[in-house]
Amino acid sequence: MTFLEFLLLSTFGYAALASPATSGSSSATTMTTIGKECKILFDGRVPQKMTPADFDKNSSIFDHQFVHGQNQTWAEIIKFPVGIPPSMFDIPKNAKPVEVTINDNSIFLPGGDPPQPQVGFRRSELIPATNNGSDITVQGTTTFHWSIRNDPLRPLNFSHEYHPAWHETADFSTSEITFLTGTPFNKSFDPTVRDPKTLRLAGRQSNSPETTFFQTPFEFDVWHNFAVTLGWTDNTLTVYYSKGIAPLKRVAGPAFNDNSGGGQFHTGVFKEPTGPLGIDVLHEGFQESNLNEGLIFGGIFIEDSAGGCVSLFPSVLGVL
């Protein structure tokens, strides 16, 4: 038994690992828990040898072109924090945490004629390179995993609204899910928020108000682990959550959510401006100068949840 196995089993006991079996797809590339085996559709866990400059290459596991400031490179944006332990789903892959940062130059220039810089936002987001809007990650039933923690050296300004993760429809008109923190730009859209330092999982963004399915305090200096299962045909949503290296537990759903529109999964830092309601938030609003903000991510992967298969805990007794 390895030290990691001893640590995890001593902390949670075998019963925590041996959750009830659920049949799922099997593949040569799998994430397993005791009694479960789920096919990995995209693996965004960052290898130890990967450098920030590697994110700018065609061979990157994330899209090397999107989404970041028009005059930036991923080599400037990506950091690898020192002294931060890996998230629980990174451990079996010997993967490392990755930090996504924003600064004053994090202004995205979308396509268009003429193109208009999104000066209202500051944004840097990783998108799976294989996620083209209609690929296998938006078919059947799939689960999106990520872990997140703060960086005390690059703190957020919680007077703003942030989207650290979301799934945007293929036509860019809305999002099936949005993961938020900070002060809502429009509080009527999220009336349940009393403390901006919370992590919140909301449903379809075009709903007014949005449905917040789950929220939890954004406790600092600890990993927050999330998984969201989306049924692309039956329009269902289920949320799982844990802290540290505790197994994921279902905290919301299955519930109805409009999952139409396919699209792409974003993880990173998307910062809304502040300002009065009614402004064009893409091109108006206030952003402070001398920005140096970031969020640390780990355990990013997407799995096939056919038959109800969801990874709640990493395999430490087998080889991935």
List keywords for this structure.
single chain; 320 residues; mainly beta; nine-stranded antiparallel sheet; six-stranded antiparallel sheet; 2 helices; globular; disordered N terminus
Polypeptide structure, described:
The protein has 320 residues and is mainly beta. It contains two helices and 17 strands. It is globular.
Would you spell out the secondary-structure blueprint of this structure?
Elements: H1 3-17, E1 30-33, E2 36-43, E3 46-47, H2 74-77, E4 78-79, E5 95-96, E6 98-102, E7 122-126, E8 141-150, E9 161-168, E10 175-182, E11 198-202, E12 212-217, E13 224-231, E14 236-243, E15 249-256, E16 264-271, E17 293-304
Antiparallel strand pairs: 1-2, 2-17, 3-5, 4-6, 6-17, 7-16, 8-13, 8-17, 9-10, 9-16, 10-11, 11-12, 13-14, 14-15
Distance between the termini: 16 Å
Strand content: 25-35%
SSE pattern: HEEEHEEEEEEEEEEEEEE
Shape: globular
What's the gyration radius in Å?
19 Å
Q: Can you give the helix content as a percent range?
A: under 10%
Q: What ranges have pLDDT less than 50 throughout 5 or more consecutive residues?
A: 1-7, 9-30
| Total beta strands | 17
Structural class by helix and strand composition: mainly beta
Q: Report the average pLDDT across residues.
A: 88
- The number of helices is 2
- Main sheet properties: 9 strands, antiparallel
InterPro entries: GH131_N
Pfam families: GH131_N
Organism: Psilocybe cubensis (Psychedelic mushroom)
Keywords: Signal
